[in-house]
Design brief:
31% of the residues lie in helices and 13% in strands. By secondary structure, the chain is of the alpha/beta class. The protein contains 6 helices and 6 strands.
């Protein structure tokens, strides 16, 4: 995530979001973060990868062109969840999460995906920092095998015998969580931290494109 973008985002929240939170109609909030992706990978920035859903969001929102990046993903996660600038080596752990702040405004808060950071180091810590429901793991691991990096559902170990692809499972739980909020008519905040496209990059066979003379079909 980008330092200037974080500052801009926090300013925008103060100007536009907080008045809405005080009103009867509270907006739902979804924050999506992906691992190890350059902005030029996206179709809306001219990338070769087809990203139609992200492109549609960009078409109706704001695209940034002048910002800095953190050198690692974990300071990004620290800043996104706290609103504070994050030194890559150390971080203030006594700050509150955005989920803890939103809970005071009657939000249901959900965490799906990867933790990895000093602020929230693992999935057990997620349940203590304002999130009502959670699913994910603390770092990388195989996309097709949940046993390589243990997954947790609401702080408890989770395993499955059903064919597993991490991005799909994370999306399924995210939809399940926000579906409960819609049913109960409560506003929600979803922090959706995908592991993809972090290495080792692994895709479903049907999504792979091989050279015409390749035997890998």
């Amino acid at each position: 995530m980008k330092i200037e973008f974080i500052k801009y985002l926090l300013s925008a929240i103060c100007v536009f979001l907080l008045p809405s939170l005080m009103a009867a109609e509270k907006p739902n909030i979804i924050n999506i973060i992906v691992d190890d992706m350059g902005y030029s990978d996206l179709g809306c920035y001219g990338g070769e990868i087809q990203t139609p859903n992200i492109d549609a969001l960009a078409a109706g929102g704001v695209r940034f062109s002048n910002y800095r990046t953190y050198p690692k993903c974990f300071p990004t996660r620290n800043s996104i969840l706290s609103g504070l600038n994050s030194d890559p080596i150390s971080f203030r752990k006594d700050s509150i999460t955005v989920a803890e702040a939103l809970k005071k405004n009657d939000y249901q808060c959900y965490f799906v995906g990867k933790t990895h950071g000093q602020f929230i180091p693992d999935m057990e810590a997620v349940t203590m920092r304002g999130f009502d429901r959670s699913f994910g793991n603390k770092s990388g691991g195989n996309y097709f095998d949940e046993k390589v990096q243990q997954c947790y559902l609401n702080g408890q170990k989770w395993n499955t015998d059903i064919p597993f692809y991490k991005t799909d499972v994370q999306t399924d739980f995210a939809l399940k969580f926000i579906g409960g909020s819609q049913k109960n008519k409560t506003p929600f905040f979803l922090h959706l931290a995908y592991h993809a496209p972090h290495y080792p990059v692994q895709a479903k066979p049907q999504d792979m494109r091989f050279p015409p003379n390749s035997n890998q079909r």
